[in-house]
Sequence to fold (361 residues):
Amino acid sequence: MAAEPVNVKEFEELAKQALPKMYYDYFAGAAEDQYTLKENVEAFKRITIQPRILVDVSKIDMSTTILGYRTSSPIMIAPTGMHKLAHPEGEVATAKAAAACDTIMALSFSSNCTVEEVASSCNAVRFFQLYVYKRRDVSALMVQRAERNGFKAIIVTVDTPRLGRREADIKNKMITPELANLKGLISQEVDSDKGSKLEAYAAATLDPSLSWKDIAWLKSITNLPVVVKGVLTSEDALKAMEVGVAGIVVSNHGARQLDYSPATITVLEEVVDAVQGKIPVLLDGGVRRGTDVFKALALGAQAVMIGRPVIYGLAARGENGVKTVINMLKDEFELTMALAGCCTVKDITRRHVKTEHDRHR
Ligand code: FNR
Fold:
């Protein structure tokens, strides 16, 4: 591609050119038929935006508050693993870009830079994503390290009792690069030359017995707010509130876990209705345009998180690439607000979008 990328999608092409096939497939791929992968993006396209005209939009304010932290826009960085496969500077580059864009980053448990390295690289507000391992002591220690290093929330991922079946990774015999946080804490050796080493590592470490009662355990070992990531139904949203979480992420893990789980944007409203404004609801999965951010907010999300686009920016251009991707989405979102007649995020209402469901009423 000779010309500079003009949208997030074009960054994917640059990333594909920059990365070895094994790594690109790991980042871009998803589970089994990848039905949900396509749907996450396609479902946004079935929602239209109903603009209001003749509103003075000479000043647009995209800022919002997430778990009490003021941020320049409702766009956050989702936790994604192993950034050094995308760029040698790894998560430190991503964190610096987040700080430069005044954007909150959620650091993955499965990062290639440590929480200490990321914390000392910039002053941005950061959340820490947690996997609960069979070795609970290892997960508990990570929560303490995150807290000690100034991370502001724990996002516990609850859609991964086992790893989804990612067929490209199986074919490529996907490797497990060193997970920096876990060095010296747990063996990262995988004794298998069949299929995805990542899957074998996940099977050895992830705790499939994790259940609702364990949220109380997690809350008991930290003063940080606990957010659950991976809610897709109103039933689970109600349970999450019962166990006292501080927030919910509507997520299907970027379609990498349960294939044929619904596109996140199609179940957002169900979750938002169940929660009734008592705790914030975030959404990730398939956000590729500023218009997608607008649609998610109109359907009740406090903010969105972006996963793959950040990695594509990082792979293509390092820290600058991540900045460009975030700024593209922010610029598009700002323009969408202006063209839809909304000057602040509070002005974006349910009446600004029509879903398929609305049209069939
Ligand atoms: C992820 N995701 C993820 N989630 C999590 O809780 N912990 C993790 O370590 C990872 N790792 C990870 C790696 C890669 C390569 C991807 C693509 C995704 C899921 C992530 O947080 C988020 O839910 C999705 O990426 C959102 O979908 P989009 O924006 O990628 O479509």
User: Anything to note?
Assistant: The CA atoms of residues 272 and 336 lie 22 Å apart. DSSP finds 14 helices and twelve strands in the chain.
